[in-house]
């Protein structure tokens, strides 16, 4: 490959990873691998400057704006940071700073590098007026409502001496505990999980629904202060100032006077950072004086007065002792490696503590699926390499085959039957995971369905949690959601169970006293008033998520109509395709499911949508579909909806190719408008719509 082709290839590759990382919050390769490729491209471009492409990722901040928010220009560009993984390059940076400052004395501030997303907050007269993402560095997404959910961020700064307009920047992040909780929830709901807290934070700050963002308990550490005219003299002063104004300034920062002290700081935090409640991926070094920062200036992509040092994920050898197969709530079977340290080879497995890795001891690593086992080519007894990806979840990165001469190994045989219920495992075409098809009897799947059923977005039975469900399940008192409605005060009172956390060995006792029992029963009773659409979602029919359930409920209005609907009737519903229709048909054809629905109906759950059937004024909009968006002069949205329905039309929530009209008010999202235009949907103003129905 010629250098020109290589440059082209690396540019395309890196731009693709950037897109996945910033737009989709997905890491297709590790940060280290990404940074190595970027370095390779940079070196080639330096050698062959003529071949550098206009869209080279070495010249631009990696992100972009999305179409779902207002794009706003940054008052000051939001750049990236140059980075390095080794001390020598850090010393080279120090050399450049020394030269750039012509022998003046200088100091550094060392800070932790938090792994989240860059945010900018603008304050006018002390009031938080705008929150924006970094975007492409010039323009970002305005997510003010979402940043306002950060509890530690002052909405108003009371200090008397503050400038009239200033900008604060920091890192929005998701604490590790929130991350774990969120992923568990995603699993219960059968949605894709996030690979690490950074991706989870990035996805959560860019949700359309601020209520959901609020629930995800995001936080932020601030580390930058900007004004038009100089207010503080140094970075140190600004950090102290921000703190005194009530900002959550990043903890752990330190002023140092030379590069050796910087390196000492790096060593000091290498393990200590693991005790922090959030993910960190390195440290940041900044020249302290603002005046000197200005002297040093910027490159196209990053300041010359700062650099980040990234800790390389620790990679260590371990012995693969055995593989367990876990059956998830959706029936997917995941192989999990049981590991021990090289020094623990002779110990029985229940005595081993695991490999030391980035501050903790690791005994397990996910192997994802059968394909991954094949890809790695590992065998039982192998010496494998383990790494914590995103510093949180351990994974196996490779195998040391040379050790096989010394220590015999045996092939791993993926089970053909479910370890929990012994049904024969299946794999759908095009999917990597094997799954247990026995969804009506396999214990983890049954339990999973009950957890799904009580979830906040489903029946919302808050007084029951995972532990309580587990207790009731293990005692055989609740095997299906319908059993919940047969529980009585007498048979709940006094139940008790000790739950042992397998990882930590900690025990927790759950016991049902008067108050608990009363609460549980109250919660269950209250769920009988939950609307039909939630009940439908709670059933956990494959591919029927909350939104689909809402559409089906609005269309069919009752479980009776839905369960007798034909494939044709189902696919006639806007936005319901063949895959969903088949899944619904198959669900209602299974006797256990029919029985469940009947029992729930008897228990008094809402099986009809109580929206009143509309009395038609005309049928002039018959067969026509509308989406209403924005704000209107003469009507509330609900009135418009009513107007459409009494004339025989239907209102949908999303713009798709099947849609006839988009009724566009003021302030509607530009993304929706553009999509409608692209799909050739007719766009109506309020006046045009009124004219249309008055013509009847
Ligand atoms: N794995 C992938 O597919 C993939 C794809 C694209 C980018 N990446 C990773 O992202 C990096 C590029 O992202 P980036 O441009 O945000 O650079 P970066 O994350 O390496 O550094 C810049 C960012 O650090 C953050 N930061 C955290 N603590 C800080 C502090 N105390 N002071 C100042 N800033 C602080 C800021 O948000 C700033 O924007 C790449 O080097 C790579 O590691 C990975
Ligand atoms: Zn099973």
Automatic annotation (TrEMBL):
It is an enzyme of class 6 (ligase). Belongs to the NAD-dependent DNA ligase family. LigA subfamily. It catalyses: NAD(+) + (deoxyribonucleotide)n-3'-hydroxyl + 5'-phospho-(deoxyribonucleotide)m = (deoxyribonucleotide)n+m + AMP + beta-nicotinamide D-nucleotide. NAD(+) binds at residues 31-35, 80-81, 111, 134, 171, 286, 310. Keywords: DNA damage, DNA repair, DNA replication, Ligase, Magnesium, Manganese, Metal-binding, NAD, Zinc. This is DNA ligase. Its EC number is 6.5.1.2. Zn(2+) binds at residues 418, 421, 436, 442. GO terms for molecular function: DNA ligase (NAD+) activity; metal ion binding. It comes from the Bacteria. One of its GO terms (cellular component) is cytosol. PROSITE patterns: BRCT, DNA_LIGASE_N1. The active site is at residue 113. DNA ligase that catalyzes the formation of phosphodiester linkages between 5'-phosphoryl and 3'-hydroxyl groups in double-stranded DNA using NAD as a coenzyme and as the energy source for the reaction. It is essential for DNA replication and repair of damaged DNA. Gene3D superfamilies: 5' to 3' exonuclease, C-terminal subdomain (1.10.150.20), 6.20.10.30, BRCT domain (3.40.50.10190), DNA ligase/mRNA capping enzyme (3.30.470.30), Helix hairpin bin (1.10.287.610), Nucleic acid-binding proteins (2.40.50.140). Signal peptide: none annotated. SUPFAM superfamilies: BRCT domain, DNA ligase/mRNA capping enzyme, catalytic domain, Nucleic acid-binding proteins, RuvA domain 2-like. PANTHER family: CHROMOSOME TRANSMISSION FIDELITY FACTOR 18 (PTHR23389), DNA LIGASE (PTHR23389:SF9). Its cofactor is Mg(2+); Mn(2+). Residues 616-696 form the BRCT domain. GO terms for biological process: DNA repair; DNA replication. Pfam families: BRCT (PF00533), DNA_ligase_aden (PF01653), DNA_ligase_ZBD (PF03119), HHH_2 (PF12826), OB_DNA_ligase (PF03120).
